[in-house]
Structure formats: C-alpha cells, structure tokens
Amino acid sequence: MAHLIGGEDLHIEFPTRTVFEGVTVGINEGQRIGIVGRNGDGKSTLLKMLGGRLTPDSGKVTLRGGTRIGYLDQADRLDDTLTVGQSIVGDAPEYEWASNPQIRDVIAGLVSDLDWEAPVSALSGGQRRRVALAALLAGEWEVLMLDEPTNHLDVEAITWLANHLKTRWNKNSGGLLTVTHDRWFLDEVCTDTWEVHDGVVEPFEGGYAAYILQRVERDRQAAAAEAKRQNLMRKELAWLRRGAPARTSKPKFRIDTANALIADVPPVRNKVELSQMAVSRLGKDVVDIDNVDVSFDDPTQPGGKRDVLKKVTWHIGPGERTGILGVNGAGKSTLLGLVTGATTPSAGRVKRGKTVVVATLTQQLDELWEVENDRVSDVIGRKKTTYVAGGKEMTPGQLLERLGFTSAQLSTPVRDLSGGQKRRLQLLLILLDEPNVLILDEPSNDLDTDMLAAMEDLLDTWPGTLLVVSHDRYLMERVTDQQYAIIDGTFRHLPGGVDQYLQLSAAGAGGSSAGAVAGSPLDKRAAADSQDAAAEASAPKAGGAEVRAAQKEMNQIDRKLGKLADQKAKLEEKMAAHDPADYEGLAALSAEVQSLQDEVDELELRWMELSDIVA
C-alpha cells in the first residue's frame, strides 16, 4: 500500500505537561483508522498535527505529493451569512453539482430535511453539524480527518455516514483518521485502531471489538510478566549481557487466543437476580401508559394543535431495560415526560406505582449547578455512606474510583472537573439517591470509550427499571434488553432492535428526513431517483398459495402471543404476591417469565418475516 501521511519523532508539550514525545506514525492508502483514548490524552492534538492544524515542537509531518486532506473540527466553521446550499456546493451552477452522484448522495443522506435557501445562522447546533459534514464530504479528498463526526447526529445519520465512508473510496485507496467515542461506528468503519495513552500511540489491528480483545491479551500478558518478574530477572540480565538484538516486529494478534480469554466469562447481567431485586423494590406496578394522546398548542397547524403522541400504550415492568429510538423531534422527551409526570396527556391514562422513584440523568448537568463550588469529597459526603453494587457494599469513594476518579480529584471543586468527570459525578449522585426507575438522556456525552465501559459495568448491577434515549447504538444495545421507537407519533416495539428501526426509517416509516432537499432544484430529480431505486429493489411477489399459508401462520402466532401474554401477566402477579424473602422461589418465577419472553421474541420475529410475504 502506498504511503499517504507520516509523522516522524513528533514531540509537543503544553505549559503543564508533555503530550507526545518521540511519536512516529504513518497512514497508508486503504487504511481507516480510529483514534481512541482517555479524554485529555491527546487524540485531537494528534489529529491536528497530522492534518497540519498544529505544528509540533519537534519532529516532522510529511505528505505524499498531491495529497488533499479534508478536515472536520469538533466545532463547525460555517459562515453565518451563507445559505445551506451555498455552504455545501458554493456558487457552483446546479448542472455541475447535481450531476455528481457523490454530492447527491451526501445531500440526501445528511441535509434532505433542510431548506436549501435557509441561512446558516437560523440552524440549530445539530443542523449546523450536518451542513458542515455535508460540505466536507461533497469535496474530493485523498484523506479525511474527522474529529467526533457523530456528535449531534441521530442513529440514521450515523448509519448513513458509516456506509458512505465504507464505499467512498476503493478498498486500497484513500485514507481515514477519525477521533470518536462511538464504538459501533469504530467497529463498522475502521480497519485499524490507534490508542493514545501516556504520551504514546499504540496501534492495533481491526475496529473497536478487535482492539478490546487485543488489549485484554496485552494486559493479561503484562500481569503474567509482573507475577514472574522476580524469577526472570537473572535470565533477563543474562540475555541483555549477550547483547541480544532489538525485537522490532510484533507477532500478529491471534483471535483464537483472545476468544479463549473470554470463553468462560458470564453474561454481562444476571437477569434473574436483577429481576427479583427489582420486584422486591418496585412491586408489580411501575408505570402504565394506556391509550395516551399528547398534543400541544400550535397556531400553524390545522385546528391550532400539533399531535406529538397518538394512542400510546406502554406498560413498564420492574427491572425492564428499554431503549427508545426516534428522530430528533419525534417525541422521545414528551414520552419520558409521561413517565416522570412532567407531561400531561391530552387523552388516555397514566398510572404510576406507589413505590416508584424516578431519576433522570439529563444532558444539562442540572444536578451539579448548586454544588459547583464544593469539593467532590464534600458533595458525595452528604449522600449515603455505603452503596451496594454487584452484591458488594462500596463507599462512594470506591464508586468514584470505579468510575475513573483518582484520590487527588476528590479535593477538586466540581466547577474544575472536565466534562466527562462531571458526567460521571452526576451519574453517581443520582445512583446514591437510590431511585428505582432511572432515565438516561444521551448518557454518552463527554465520555471516552473507557469511561463508557465503566459506566455500563456499573449499570449492569443496578437493580431497577432503566429507560435509555441515545444516538449511541453501541451503548443502546449494550445496556438495554429491548428497544421501542416513536414513529409518526405512534409507539412501536422493535423485536429486531436498531436494525429493524433503520429498515423502517429507510422505507420512510421512521419519520426520518430521507427524501429530497426542501426548496432545492434537486427535488424532482431526487424523487425520480428514489422511485427508480424502489423499483429496482422490489422483489418478485410471492404466489397466492404462499401468501395464504403465511397469513394462516400469522393468525396462529397472534393467538399464541395472546396466550403467552396472559401467562406472563399471571406469573408477574404471582411474583408480586410472593414472599420477597423467598429468593429461590422468586428466581424460579423470574426464570419462567424470561422463558416466556424469549418465546414471545421468537414468535414476533417470525411474524415480521411472514408479514413481508403477505405485504
């Protein structure tokens, strides 16, 4: 593979610390590199040096002749005086950019819901991000450098971006460097991973999953080496005295060795134990939302009302872990407001259990405003002295350590913490209040991949009902057991998870922004392209006999699902009336409920397959 960019012996330091010392890296054609590491360790600094945005104190960066670099900053650099269209294609005539399939794809994928003539100054932060990304991707570049490209993007846009980057260049051409905390995106796009830590850049093969496996193996080897260190010192000394040549090559990572390391690791959550603890804390009833409508006053709409939610029914049980998907503005916050009591339904009924205590991890860090001048140790000292996590009693200080705080940081004023540290402290304070229903609203903001893993580990032992709204697909699938979506105001279960939601969105049923650019001269062309694509994608229809057989099986599944729902309800009533001290009995009942739920999930997936045939 041809060399694109090289950084040789890079050294850079800031007034308080040295960030990199003697780092040498290179990017070859065909490489798609994800950069990971703790917040503050230098990921963006490395990207800026390689992209020519920052000059190292020593060392040099070299580019192959003619290499063009496209760079996306964390903050956009859009000109507020321009329109959306001017920001993306400049003053180029329509026939130039509209005849370019790459530009048409970028426009349809990122800004199809925006007014082409709208001024940039009128856009929201998320809309500005999409315009800035579209403006970059519309250009021709040999190398793209993206700093947190998924910030402010929803699940659909992130999925589109991943697919675009995978197909933008031929397999062995082009280069990508991206700093991101979105682990699904790293796995989907990247062929290599660079970990930035302690002033060095350590390369790994593969995306995020492969990187984690290799890191486990590296740490295991380090632990084994330390345990044997005393016994090996004499041999090592003899080796050095013989003047052994330096070992500059490393053996390839062996996936079978890594898999052996995790072969006997138990599931991330003990569902039976968490379920019985949740029932003992919550009882049978958590929140029941029955046939609820929500509308708000809006003079621009017919009748002066805007319908946000329509005929929503959702029975939230003890210990459920549910993810909620939907485009921005679909009504996710309104739905959560029904759970917390902040939203009043226009019609229908909302019933909350008597023992329900709801807490919300907000995006705004509201819980820390009143204590921003206090030290971390003083803030947590006002809470409980102990907390049980994973069956072990821990002090708040031990919990902070589990979430990545050092003992020195306990004396730091809250206002001086980084964004990620504030986010972790916010979560800890909420957990110490011991709610039994926890709502997480974009919890991954400001957290690096290690801290996200630490937070997920802590949530794995939390015995309550968990509701998550997030555009971070990895986190959504990691901490929740089921997903729902708000689609055109209705609330829909997704047995197929995020993949099913994306399929619905691509088909136009997700309330997504897929379509032609509003107010753009590309309207008719995009509509025609969409019709052509739909015609090409349409499969031959099933025969009459096959349709009838599928319909018959769907009817059977409907009847069986009804019976299973009755059985599950009876078991849950039995659990609620059961002696909380009888853990074995509760565990057996909980296992029966889980078995029924597994059967329901399988039947729902089969029903979906059959519905495609009938349709």
Topology diagram in text:
Layout: E1 3-14, E2 17-28, E3 32-37, H1 43-50, E4 58-63, E5 69-72, H2 84-89, H3 94-98, H4 101-110, H5 125-137, E6 143-147, H6 155-167, E7 175-179, H7 183-189, E8 192-197, E9 200-205, H8 208-227, H9 229-241, H10 255-262, H11 271-282, E10 287-297, E11 305-316, E12 321-325, H12 332-340, E13 347-352, E14 358-361, H13 376-381, E15 387-389, E16 392-394, H14 396-402, H15 419-432, E17 437-441, H16 449-460, E18 465-469, H17 473-479, E19 482-487, E20 490-494, H18 497-506, H19 523-537, H20 544-577, H21 583-614
Parallel strand pairs: 3-7, 3-8, 5-6, 6-7, 12-18, 12-19, 14-17, 17-18
Antiparallel strand pairs: 1-2, 1-4, 8-9, 10-11, 10-13, 15-16, 19-20
Helix pairs in contact: 4-5, 8-10, 11-21, 20-21
Descriptive key words:
single chain, 615 residues, alpha/beta, Rossmann fold, 4 domains, six-stranded mixed sheet, 42% helix, 21% strand, globular
